[in-house]
Amino acid sequence: MYTTVRESQGAIDASARLMDQQRAGFNGDDRAEAVGALVPLLVDQVMAEAGVVEPAVAAKAVEQARGDVSRAVSLLRSWVSCLPREATAVVGWRGIEVERRITPAMSEPDGGQFLGASLDYAPRLLNLGSSLSAETSSDATEPAAEHGAEPAAEPLVLPRAAARLEEQDLINAAEPAEPVDITRRASAAGAGRGAFGQFLSRAETGALTALAYTAVREGPKQADPTLVELRAGQLPVSVPHPRTGNPVRIGSVPVTTCELVLYHVQVDSSGEHTDSGFTLGYGATAGRVERRAISAAMLDARVTRAQGNPPGTATLPSDDAEWLITALDGQEATGFVEHLKLAHHVSFASDLDRVRAVGETRAEED
Questions:
Q1: For residue 173, is pLDDT > 80?
Q2: Looking at per-residue confidence, does 23 or 230 come out higher?
Q3: What is the mean predicted confidence (pLDDT) over 67-78?
């Protein structure tokens, strides 16, 4: 905080009290519970960008920030930074207890399609009446699986849709990446694909979506992405027992994962095809904001594809992992933009002096 602002502490306290008065009507716990119940995807977005899965605390952060996602993310990250780290667990996405699984690239994938709970197929019409009609309530009890399949009593175990393409050598997949915890690093730049993947999972949602879209619109021809599989559900988390060493399940994390392929034919200077396969991209995010996982997979595929380009090939910003790490850091971007609201009259006075001095010098020369 700038010293000149701190000197006006009375005004700062009054400003905070005025904000509290505007939020009057419910106590803090009631407001947080209402946020979690009414806008769960907003809470999911805050958890994803913060990299912290704790719905009750995330809802409290959203309420305290009055719906400002960036501020809520900052509050949640600050809160978790003060907590002790009790254990570390590495989990594989194949262990997801599937609640929703779609494969737009295939009509009949192995294991079938499971639409799950989704508004993707509902008309986008604003309902100015009740939020949930009786008809919708009754429909919600029907199974969402394809062909009227009964809901599974046990967690679904489904094969990867992309496995069929890999068996036919149609996918140019990147090498498996080692997980890297970027919260223990100064920067994700240069730490490899594992760190880049975790960064994408925590990136600012709007920037992530926008850059994924521009990567397609401004990229080379015949570079269209196709979503091979999107699955959402609960990912079990287990840690070793402190005495026996045996794995003990301590809970689960709501996640959404996406595998996407990018089609682009490589052609050398002579016009010969050098590579006609698909490039696989992978994205994941906490919660159910599915465009986050899709966008992350698109950018992962772009970066992976660019790494195989011939030397001298023009590179778009969306193909550069280090540039994306800068552009997608929502907390850094928001912090810079919003710090402009703080007092800058001292530095601006210095700028005015320089501009005036230049003007006076030019006037004397004329």
A1: no
A2: 230
A3: 94
- Three-state SS string over the chain comes to CCHHHHCCHHHHHHHHHHHHHHCCCCCHHHHHHHHHHHCHHHHHHHHHHHCCCCHHHHHHHHHHCCCCHHHHHHHHHHHHHCCCCCCCCCCCHHHCEEEEEECCCCCCCCCCCECCCCCCCCCCCCCCCCCCCHHHHHHCCCCCEHHHCCCCCCCECCCCCCHHHHHCCCEECCCCCCCCCHHHCCCCCCCCHHHHHHHHHHCCHHHHHHHHHHHHHCCCCCCCEEEEEEEEEEEEEEEECCCCCCEEEEEEEEEEEEEEEEECCEECCCCCEEECCEEEEEEEEECCCHHHHHHHHHHHHHHHHHHCCCCCCCCCHHHCHHHHHHHCCHHHHHHHHHHCCCCCHHHHHHHHHHHHHHHHHHHHHC
Q: Is the Cβ–Cβ distance between 298 and 225 less than 8 Å?
A: yes
Q: What is the pTM of this model?
A: 0.82
332-361 pLDDT, tens digit each: 899 999 889 888 888 889 999 999 999 888
Residues facing 163 on adjacent strands? none
Cα separation, 244 vs 249, in Å, equals 14
Give pLDDT tens digits for 241-279: 889 989 999 999 999 999 999 886 665 556 565 566 788
| Residues 292/267, Cβ–Cβ less than 8 Å | no
Give the confidence band of 309 by pLDDT, cuts at 50, 70, 90: confident
Residue 250 — φ and ψ, nearest 5°? -110, -5
